[in-house]
Structures are given as structure tokens and as C-alpha cells.
């Protein structure tokens, strides 16, 4: 990669974040560096933008930041569009404040653009995009890189410690942590790279949407997407809402985090940051800087760091190593085998997809979990573990259980479609093998609702939580098993379930 880069970029401090996605040289006639954002929707503290600006400065070319949203990506809904467009609006404002041109496209009837990234990239000297290990971002990046006539670089913006630093040969989370923990402090420093070239004002092959002036509600109402899933009131879109949550974390949540975080009856004991992290409205460095500077006790900070860095970045690492992070075969073989051995067991707790989707099953606690997904677009961690395990008993076979869990999580949760989605669901389908063989689950451990129900006021809380008014969510005729699985090619990809075994 470095042989094509101008002198001065070869020892780029952020180089471990950067991966060449093709063998093309830098374009000689391009008049800008294209920075294509898919999920890291922030204008500050964004390694993708910084990489593009660094490259642009070295080439004496301006950077053009582009973000687009289609109607036809899996699970497109009012909920996701609201969140994404809100993030996009603030992205545009922050880019402008940094001296960068940022253009948007909202694809819709009468305003369609095909192959826009390719067309924007055709006049670029290079394309800088995101290194995302899951969902459509990864596949789209690989497609752009395969077609581009100029160099395409993928930059990791999701993790504090770039996955390349950890290497491809770690086994299990403890091995991962041994490498990850000593690296963290070294990645906490860093400032936004200042462009030394005037903002791009050249021609564009399309008419951008002026996202700050759009009537988002009216625009979304006219789109061909899932209108049965409304925006989340609990998680408003945009940078201001994200930073409010971060301030709340520092002031109110962190001082009691290590104990309160497990109490689902007090959802305010958790940060609620996962939607903003998933869409990159906040990055892990900004969050960890606030946590490090907070006045909370060391044990609370350490617990938070273990969740945000120790778990979240472990699941990113796993996804990067897998051909298809969302596919059932990532679950360790022993767990798939024992579940398959019991696939024909009677399933007295089976539920219909309609009952599950609407949170109207015979299991009040499960319904309480599902109501959070339906209404808030988020679920408390402690409830997610119960929710995920129970799906195995509620569905006719393990394959359907996996597809159902992924479908519900991906469609309803703002933070779904993420490496943490599939990594955590896989953990629910495996974990440590139980000593006893049980019906339906085999040696996969079951999980009860006692950690919530047996708390003071827990039963009453669950009863209320299970009867919240839910949106009239549409129900598909059949479970969309392949709405998104995705297989990928590229260096270091392995289809192995051993990653989960420790
Ligand atoms: C079955 C199941 C499905 C899940 N699906 C998702 C998902 O789709 N997207 C998602 O981001 N997380 C998922 N999680 C992990 C976790 O439940 C959520 O990240 C967490 O509940 C988000 O709430 P919070 O931001 O208040 O978390 P906090 O407790 O405040 O934690 C802070 C941050 O640490 C990270 N984190 C916390 N717990 C985990 C974890 N177990 N794994 C990875 N990262 C973690 C998140 O980024 C979170 O925002 C799932 C867990 C389970 C058991």
C-alpha cells in the first residue's frame, strides 16, 4: 500500500487503521479524494475523514465527503432512516466547520441515482471508505474496491484499537484482551487533521440533497420503506442527543455502573450509548476520554471499559475474521451439534412469529424484553441475555431460532446489524457447556428471568414493561431468513467457530 502513497504518509501514525482494498495506483488526474461514509456518521474524531484529509493534504487535493442512504437496504424503516438522517445532518455541519465539503443523497422515487459512489470515485485520485466487518457496509466496500480504477483504502473507525494491531492469530477473548489492553492508552491521543487545501467546489455528477434543509418527516413518509416501525423517542437522532447521553453517563451512570448495570428494572443504570456507537455518531475514543476524565471510582470505569472495549472490540475482531459473521455456522460445533440432537424434541413453549414479533407470547418476561425493542429500539443487556436464550425454546428448530433472533434484533434495534449483534447471539447459542443434557437445549445452558423477577419490585416492573403500548409493526408472511447473511472475501477471512472457544 505504502509504495503508492506520497512520502510522508508511509509512516502514518494511523497506518494500522488503513487497509488497501485493491491494487490500483493513486489516480493521476483526479481532482479530489473521495471519502465515503456508510456508518461512521460523525464529522469529528473520525479516523476515516482524518485519513482522507491526510491523503488529500499530501496530494494537495481537497476531500469530498459523501454519505448516501437507499430505500432498499435490509430492514430500512422510519426508525433507521430518522436516526441516520439526523446523524447525517450533524455530519454535514461538522464537516463544513472543519473546512470540508460534505454531500448527501437520499435515494427515492423521482430522485434516483445509480452507482453514485463509482461515479464520484471516477474523478477522484483515491477513495477512502470504512472498514466495517459486518452487514452491507462490508460487501459494498468490497464491490467499490473491485470496480474502482483508483486506489481504495478502508479505514477502521469503529474501534479504539485498530484490529490490525491485534493480529489474526488470537484465540479466545482472554488472548484478545492480553493484546488489546496494553494498546489502549496509545490510541487515546489524536486530534482532527486540519485540511490544508480549500474545500472541494468542483463539479458533481448529481444534485445533492441539502440535508440540513430537508423536512425529514415528510421525506421519510414518502419513502418506500417499513413505516410500521417508528423513530425511537428514547434515542433521538444526532450529535446533541448522543453527547447528552455521554454527559449523563459521566455524571449519573458511571458512579454506580458496576452494580447498577445488571439491574434491568433501572434501565437508566446503563449508558444507552449503543445506537450512537453503532452508527458512529460517537466513537469509542471520545467515549473513553470522557470516562477516563470522570470522577467515578476505578472499578466502575474498569467495568465500562471491559464492556465498550473488551467485549465490543472483541466482537469486531471476530467479525473481521469470519466470512459471514451473521451466519449460524459461526456458533461453535459442539453447540450446534447438541442443539441439532434435540431439534426434534417436543417444543411446548413454541410461539408463532406474530406473537414473538408483537411481544404477545405466553412469557411475560420475554414480552417485556420485546417491548423495549419495539418501542425504544434498544434493550437492556440483562434482558437481552434472557431474550436470546428463550428464542431457542420458542422456535421449531435451532436454525429457525438463529434466524429469528437475528431478524428481530436487526429489524427492531437501532444497534442491530452489528458485529455485537451476531457475536452476542452466538454466545447465547453456546457459552459454557452445561453438565446436564436438557430437552431442546441439549448442553447449551438455559437462562431464567430471576435476575430481574426476583429483585425488589421486579415482578411488578416486568408486568408493566410487558404491557406497554407497542407500535403496529407489520408481520412478514414468513420469517425472512436471508434478509441479510452476507459472505465476504478478502484477506484474513476464516469461516471458523473456534474463535468463540476458549
Ligand atoms: C442476545 C444479545 C444481543 C445483543 N445485540 C446487540 C446489538 O445488536 N448491538 C449491540 O451494540 N450490542 C448488542 N448486545 C450487547 C449489549 O447488550 C448492548 O451493547 C448493550 O445492552 C447496549 O446498551 P448500553 O449502551 O446501555 O450498554 P452499556 O452497559 O452502557 O455498555 C456500554 C457500551 O459497551 C458495549 N457493550 C456492552 N455490553 C456489550 C456486549 N455484551 N457485547 C458487545 N458490546 C457491549 C456497547 O457498545 C455499549 O453501548 C447484545 C447482547 C445480547 C445478549
UniProtKB/TrEMBL annotation:
Residue ranges occupied by any Photolyase/cryptochrome alpha/beta domain in the UniProt entry: 31-160
UniProt-listed InterPro entries: Crypto/Photolyase_FAD-like_sf, Crypto/Photolyase_N_sf, DNA_photolyase_N, Photolyase_Class-2, Rossmann-like_a/b/a_fold
Annotated TM spans: none
Gene3D superfamilies, per the entry: 1.25.40.80, DNA Cyclobutane Dipyrimidine Photolyase, subunit A, domain 3, HUPs
Cofactor(s) needed by this chain: (6R)-5,10-methylene-5,6,7,8-tetrahydrofolate
Organism domain of life: Bacteria
Any Pfam family the entry gives: DNA_photolyase
Name recorded for this polypeptide: Photolyase/cryptochrome alpha/beta domain-containing protein
Upper taxonomic lineage: Bacteria, Pseudomonadati, Pseudomonadota, Alphaproteobacteria, Sphingomonadales
Amino acid at each position: 500500500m505504502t509504495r503508492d502513497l506520497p512520502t510522508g504518509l508511509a509512516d502514518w501514525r494511523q497506518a494500522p487503521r488503513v487497509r488497501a482494498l485493491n491494487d490500483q495506483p493513486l489516480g493521476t488526474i483526479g481532482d479530489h479524494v473521495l471519502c465515503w461514509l456508510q456508518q461512521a456518521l460523525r464529522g469529528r474524531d473520525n479516523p476515516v475523514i482524518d485519513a482522507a484529509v491526510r491523503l488529500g493534504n499530501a496530494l494537495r487535493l481537497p476531500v469530498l465527503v459523501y454519505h448516501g442512504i437507499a430505500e432498499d437496504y435490509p430492514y430500512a424503516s422510519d426508525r433507521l432512516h430518522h436516526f441516520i438522517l439526523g446523524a447525517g445532518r450533524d455530519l454535514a455541519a461538522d464537516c463544513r466547520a472543519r473546512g470540508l465539503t460534505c454531500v448527501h443523497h437520499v435515494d427515492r422515487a423521482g430522485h434516483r441515482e445509480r452507482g453514485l459512489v463509482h461515479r464520484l470515485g471516477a474523478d477522484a485520485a483515491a477513495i477512502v471508505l470504512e472498514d466495517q466487518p459486518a452487514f452491507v457496509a462490508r460487501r459494498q466496500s468490497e464491490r467499490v474496491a473491485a470496480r474502482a480504477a483508483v486506489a481504495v483504502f478502508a479505514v477502521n473507525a469503529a474501534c479504539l484499537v485498530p484490529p490490525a494491531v491485534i493480529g489474526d492469530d488470537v484465540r479466545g477473548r482472554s488472548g484478545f484482551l492480553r493484546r488489546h489492553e496494553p494498546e489502549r492508552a496509545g490510541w487515546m491521543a489524536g486530534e482532527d487533521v486540519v485540511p490544508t487545501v480549500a474545500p472541494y467546489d468542483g463539479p458533481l455528477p448529481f444534485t445533492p440533497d441539502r440535508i440540513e434543509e430537508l423536512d425529514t418527516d415528510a421525506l421519510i413518509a414518502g419513502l418506500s420503506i417499513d413505516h410500521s416501525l417508528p423513530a425511537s423517542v428514547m434515542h433521538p437522532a444526532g450529535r446533541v442527543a448522543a453527547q447528552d447521553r455521554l454527559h449523563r453517563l459521566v455524571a449519573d451512570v458511571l458512579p454506580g455502573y458496576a452494580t447498577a448495570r445488571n439491574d434491568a428494572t433501572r434501565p437508566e443504570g446503563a449508558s444507552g450509548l449503543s445506537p450512537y456507537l453503532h452508527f458512529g455518531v460517537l466513537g469509542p475514543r471520545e467515549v473513553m476520554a470522557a470516562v477516563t476524565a470522570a470522577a467515578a471510582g476505578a472499578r466502575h470505569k474498569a467495568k465500562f471499559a471491559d464492556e465498550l472495549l473488551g467485549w465490543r472490540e472483541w466482537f469486531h475482531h471476530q467479525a473481521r475474521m469470519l466470512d459471514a459473521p451473521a451466519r449460524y455456522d459461526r456458533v461453535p460445533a459442539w453447540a450446534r451439534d447438541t442443539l441439532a440432537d434435540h431439534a426434534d424434541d417436543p417444543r411446548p413453549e413454541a410461539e408463532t412469529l406474530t406473537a414473538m414479533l408483537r411481544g404477545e407470547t405466553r412469557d411475560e418476561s420475554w414480552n417485556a424484553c420485546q417491548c423495549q425493542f419495539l418501542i425504544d429500539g434498544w434493550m437492556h443487556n440483562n434482558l437481552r441475555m434472557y431474550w436470546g436464550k428463550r428464542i431457542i425454546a420458542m422456535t421449531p428448530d435451532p436454525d429457525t431460532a438463529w434466524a429469528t433472533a437475528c431478524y428481530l434484533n436487526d429489524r427492531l434495534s437501532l444497534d442491530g446489524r452489528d458485529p455485537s449483534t451476531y457475536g452476542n447471539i452466538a454466545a447465547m447459542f453456546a457459552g459454557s457447556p452445561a453438565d446436564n443434557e436438557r430437552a431442546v437445549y441439549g448442553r447449551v445452558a438455559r437462562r431464567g428471568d430471576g435476575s430481574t423477577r426476583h429483585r425488589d419490585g421486579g415482578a411488578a416492573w416486568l408486568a408493566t414493561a410487558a404491557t406497554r403500548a407497542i407500535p403496529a409493526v407489520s408481520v412478514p408472511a414468513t420469517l425472512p431468513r436471508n434478509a441479510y447473511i452476507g459472505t465476504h472475501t478478502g484477506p484474513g477471512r476464516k469461516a471458523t467457530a473456534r474463535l468463540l472457544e476458549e
